[in-house]
Amino acid sequence: MYVFMKLQQTRSSPAVLLGGAGRRAGPRGWTTPVPYCSTHGPTPGGEFCFCCRGSGITNGSTPLQHTRSATNGCPPPAAMSNPGRPSSQPSRGGRSPWSPHGERGRLPPINRAPGSFQFGHQDNLPSCTPVQRALLSLTLSLEKLQAVKCRMLEAMEKGLSQETHAQATVHMLPTFICSTPDGTEKGDLMVVELCQSHVRTLFVTLLGDGNQSPQLMYKIFELPADMLQGTGEALFDFVAQCVQKFLEEIGNPQHRLPVGFVFPFSCRQTGLGKAELISWSKGFQCSDVEGKDVVQLLQAAINKLELYHVEVIALLNDTVGTMMASSWGGKPCEIALVAGTGTNSCFMAEAQLVEVVEENNGRMCVNSEWGCFGDDGALNDVLTPYDHRVDQESSNPGERRFEKMVGGLYLGEIVRHAMLMLATEQALFVGASTSALGSKDVFKTQQVLEIMDNETGMAKARSALEALGLQPSERDCCRVQQICRAVVSRAAALSATGLAAILSLMCRSRELERLVVNVGVDGELYRAHSRFGEILQSVAGLLAPECAATLVPSADTNGLGVAMVTAVAQRVLTQRHEVEQLLAPLRLSRADLERVQGLMRQEMERGLGRDSNADASVRMLPTYVCNTPDGTERGDFLALDLGGTNFRVLVVRVMQEGIHMASEIYVVPTSIMQGTGEALFDHIIECIMDFQTKQNLMEQVLPLGFTFSFPCKQLGLDKALLLTWTKGFSASGCVGQDVVQLLREAAQRKQHLALKVVAVVNDTVGTMMACGYDDPRCEIGLIVGTGTNACYMEERKNVGTVEGEEGRMCINMEWGAFGDNGCLDDIFTTFDRMVDEKTINAGKQRFEKLISGMYLGEIVRHILLAMVDKQLLFRGKPSLKLQTRDIFQTKFLSTIETDGLALQHVQGILRDLELDASFEDSVLVREVCQTVSLRAAQLCAAGLAAVVEKMRENRGLAQLAVTVGVDGTLYKMHPHFSHNLQQMLQDLAPNCAVTFLQSEDGSGKGAALVAAVACRETSP
């Protein structure tokens, strides 16, 4: 807390010292202790030291450690001339007169909240003078500022929320600006800015050279005073005429000219170029505009002049222009604060916080419109009688309360009312007529700022007061200077409080321990008074210590910052169009998916047919698994799971109380994967023997279920011919051979005679069987991981490739090859073809290459390369790392698409891949990932829809209820894949109630259960 020492009036002689050294008595015996910072010197006008944490600021109980008194309550001349330097006057005894051990002890600090001080009630402060009370009422403790910050934060969060936005006083309006300049902006554009007293038009040519040499032409048109209170039509017609005159003067360019419209009033934006005026301010009150789209009003006025090539594409706020201008010269800026005639701020918020818009990726610039903060009474304990009177005399009483304490339009009026009330109490201008002070706007904010000057302030005060016929004394001038400084210091402190709320909100929403950010600052108050900036910086640092904010003065004197907003808007619109074109082939319509569903059904029928099976891309392989578990299975079983670079050996004990398993993982070296078949199966047998030895099972002959996750043509439950290798395997001498027989022959070579293979199954079948143990309705298996496949229970009479008519048989679809016959060529994009061409099985497993985790990252990488080539990403700079195959693993898609993941984490992932990504790049990469994974989920749903609809029709049911056992890292780990799959399946197969049950170790447990079911069926 910072504290003002108690003012005391005494009639003692000039030599009387109150409280020790450093006191000087003035005429009439008035003495005033002035707060003094040991580092930065006196803080005149009753100001505390905002420049440090030193003696000017306390913890709420310790007063200032250093003070100096001032004649007539004014700081000494030396202090006035150089407030930043400590006074050379030593205190007696080398101690602070107000220290606990000073000569007279210390005066108690005034702890009453200044904002709650009411004139006329002096019970707690019997010795306070009217000037003391005036200064106190304008002084806010650090504790009070902290409370105001908390209220501001609450109001901001209320404005961001969908539920409470309509009631919020801090509107937190989305601007739909999600990008900052990246240097690739190019072309001609125009800015039209509506200002307080003029219209500014600006023509800018950008060369795409990093914005190093923009070419500008501009002109200012004076705005007639009566326009401010006239009709909206007249105002916009005038603005359009300014555009026409300006274009005529620069040669009437006829090509399309995008325009950014700077409209510094509260608007509710629903798009970059669509905004309804909420309310006028700053002296404007044009009729028939509030509630209407101001972009359309201006465009209509321009069209009336037949300037059809001039297109208003964006509504911009002057505060956003400040942020952009402050980003100039390699200084990225994410916050802007305007302290001028009015006050406002904007900042780059996490888009997911802005609930009033659908966009939830990246960041969006939010226009806080914090001038209305306090309209609900949140500032009642801070408002002074002067604030109330200023508000009552304004054109909008009760509105924009924060702005009326901070904005330059009102500071002169606050000072005027303070002087008027002090004159009424005979504390100022004694004996002079003060009638001139009763007139509104006779004391301007510009005069307030001039009076604050250390060198010429007193002279300026005398001149301004004499112009009002007040005949001020030296003491009057000094008191007025104190009041001016207190009013402006309060405005700076309150602005800092709002800034601190934004900083804390950004730091928290980005999940940072410390936020480092640049803040663009503009406005007459900030530019005209250096002390304003010092207070702004220091108080914001005290109120938001977790943030390091650097104030960057805006250099937007010619409107270039605003022009850059327009350029960015145009670049974003152009890029958005190109991005949509690039991604359009990957965005499948409902009709596209229905066609894929129909093609899958067609290929399924061909695969089941005896005569057509050889030509079908979906092989529909019979598995000879004709039953699912019924719960009566018992015993110990071995399981072998081979489907990748690792394989597992398991022992599975099926008991009445459940299933218990033990397993071990073994590695298949690349040399064995790509060597001979004999070496591969010898390695497998060696690992089985090692496992049985460790589990003390070498003396037992246990039934073994073999999960072999490669395309096979099964001729029986324990007989399967390998059709082709996948997943990087290419062991020779295996294709066309019975893999169970190859395993048995290896066992004989290794003299392991206790091997009893009873079933060979696909991992998809294992998944179905494992889930079928828990849910008897599970008749479909689905794998969506490194690869993809499905199986289901088909009516045996429909399986033309095997004998028999009764019952059902599980069909291993091998749907990864769907489309290998060219039926999906129109679904394949350029990026899919690029990925396919680089695989070891080009032209094969086409459906799998659209869906499975092995390929999605590569699809994303090729899309990103195309975007870089079109200068849509990474500022068009080629990346050698991005040229590296398989750099973009599918696990990154899962991480990048995680809900609520702060954007800097996405940026961090990309930087770990040595990709220099901006936040805008990160948003675009996320969109690409979402597009690719959504297509994969929807294509998977189309395939599954064909399966469930066939099952329903086979059984003659109006409604089918079935469970899908599902496994695979993509399904399990991706944050949205399962939801997107289920949602689209419901849409494509509305007559099927499909439940998804995640498999726990389906490929291992499932194989054992196939063996268990087989043993159950053969047991007597």
UniProtKB/TrEMBL annotation:
Q: Where is the composition biased (Low complexity)?
A: 83-100
> Domain Hexokinase C-terminal, which positions?
335-568, 779-1013
UniProt superkingdom: Eukaryota
- Bias (Polar residues) ranges: 62-72
According to its UniProt entry, one GO biological process term is: glycolytic process
| Reactions the enzyme catalyzes | D-fructose + ATP = D-fructose 6-phosphate + ADP + H(+); a D-hexose + ATP = a D-hexose 6-phosphate + ADP + H(+); D-glucose + ATP = D-glucose 6-phosphate + ADP + H(+)
- Cellular component terms per the entry's GO annotation: cytosol; mitochondrion
Would I find Zinc-finger among this entry's keywords? Answer: no
The keyword ATP-binding is assigned to this record: yes
Q: In which pathway does it act?
A: Carbohydrate metabolism; hexose metabolism; Carbohydrate degradation; glycolysis; D-glyceraldehyde 3-phosphate and glycerone phosphate from D-glucose: step 1/4
Could you cite one Gene Ontology molecular function of this protein? mannokinase activity
Keyword vocabulary terms for this entry: ATP-binding, Glycolysis, Kinase, Nucleotide-binding, Repeat, Transferase
Hexokinase N-terminal domain sequence ranges = 132-327, 579-773
Residues annotated as region Disordered? 62-121
Question: Which Enzyme Commission number(s) are on file for it?
Answer: 2.7.1.1
Q: Which family does it belong to?
A: Belongs to the hexokinase family.
Descriptive protein name:
hexokinase
Source organism of this protein record: Cairina moschata (Muscovy duck)
